[in-house]
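Example record

The entry below shows one chain as it appears in the dataset: sequence first, then structure tokens.
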Amino acid sequence: TTKLCIEELEKCVDQNTELLDIGCGSGILSVISLLLGAKEAWAVDIDPACEKVAMENAQLNKVDTAKYHVYSGDIISDKALFEKLSVRKYDVIAANIVADVIIALLPIVKKLIKDGGTFVCSGIIDERLGDVLSAMEKENITPCHRTCGGGWNAMTCKM
């Protein structure tokens, strides 16, 4: 699933990109986005260890950490965290997590993404693809590209 996301990010990240990585874990997607030339990246995960691990990975990859911002917390239920992240709109939002979380994030993604922005999501098993597509349809989000491999799916949506 990470590989599927990276392949999509390679197509949409440039030097003007401000990216938000939701469910960042080790920070791989946001770090790679910065390596691809993104202007700035924000990353968030419910696991408090993400802050330390993602920053360590950024430093190991010689990323300018002044352009990298990592937070822990639940963006869905933590209003203060949501407000902190919503002071701007993002060109690209990436979420490589499970279908249920992607479904729950759709209304939040719509609030945080710029008009014409790109939402890349992955971590969707074949059996849950229909559920995610249904939820996207309800939110008026239309995938423009889907890739799959090994029973997993990634989708790119222009917003």
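Notes for this example: The mean pLDDT is 97. Residues 31 and 58 are 6 Å apart (CA to CA).
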